[in-house]
Amino acid sequence: MIPSGTPNFWITEANYFQLTGPGFWKINEVPQERLSQLPSPFHLEKTVGVFASGINPRAVDAPEGQKIAGIDWFRLEANPLPTEPPLNVNHFVIGSPVSGRFPVFGPYRSGSIAAHWTDGSDIPKYY
């Protein structure tokens, strides 16, 4: 189930399919030109990379209230403590569509493809 409460933002169906690609949870790196078409925070100058994956809700029955995709946002930490690694990773959850738009919840410190605080060594290779 998706988190309760109000989504952080909504994305269009076109943006959803641009993020998730062919679907079926294949992890895609989101190109910089796509990030500028999404709501903040993903196109901030401290962004190192954004990865997204999910299902194609047209091909798989996605009842309302279900998690159908995720976004992982990697960015340079603006003010790291001496013991903190340089990268900060946040996870966002995308819910099934409501009236043609997709709710996005987050940011969360868990659920991403790497640890919330990382030096980059735990980031899997996807390309």
User: What best-fitting shape do the alpha-carbon axes yield?
Assistant: globular
> Oligomeric state of the chains?
single chain
Percent of residues in helices comes to under 10%
Terminal-residue CA separation = 30 Å
Radius of gyration: 14 Å
Classify the beta-strand content into a percent band: 25-35%
Mean pLDDT equals 83
Structural class: mainly beta
Task: Summarize it.
It is built from two helices and seven strands. It has 127 residues and is mainly beta. 26% of the residues are buried.
Question: How does this structure look, described?
Answer:
By secondary structure, the protein is mostly beta strands. It has one domain (9-118). Helices cover 9% and strands 34% of the residues. Strands 1, 2, 3, 4, 5, 6 and 7 form a 7-stranded antiparallel sheet that branches. The longest helix has 8 residues, at 13-20. The radius of gyration is 14 Å and the shape is globular.
Fill in the keyword field for this structure.
single chain, 127 residues, globular
Give me the secondary-structure topology.
Layout: E1 9-12, H1 13-20, E2 28-29, H2 32-35, E3 47-54, E4 67-76, E5 87-95, E6 101-108, E7 117-118
Antiparallel strand pairs: 1-6, 2-3, 3-4, 4-5, 5-6, 5-7
